[in-house]
Write a structure and sequence with these properties.
Blueprint (H helix, E strand, L loop, with lengths): L5 H12 L5 E7 L3 H11 L4 H9 L4 H19 L8 E19 L5 E17 L1
Antiparallel strand pairs: 1-3, 2-3
Helix pairs in contact: 3-4
Amino acid sequence: MAKGHRSQIKKERNIATQEKRPHATAKYVGIPAPKAKIVLDQIKGKDVATAAAMLNYSPRLAAEIIGKVLKSAVANAENNLGMDVSKLYVEEVSADQGPTMKRIRPRAQGRAYRILKRSCHISIVLNER
């Protein structure tokens, strides 16, 4: 027989598998994943202050959204895990493909062209040096 109540066992298991590194995620962002990956590859491995500065001066639309996600991850590290912000760096980044909205563009002679409005899920994981 198991030790303790089922809910208590599940609770202990969830705590054991919980992520210890600070992270933040933005889901259903209206930017295609390849365009977001271009910006994410630039900040991977950089410390938080440098990454924030790079995102602040980047002309790409994805940089603004990724900047918000980075800011959220830093706040999670500081408030939830009590980490020192000056020691943080961007350890992992990912832009996974989200759902695609399909739209139709009317064309000549009764034809229709497909418009695919792609979205992605952006996630950033930080760590201390």
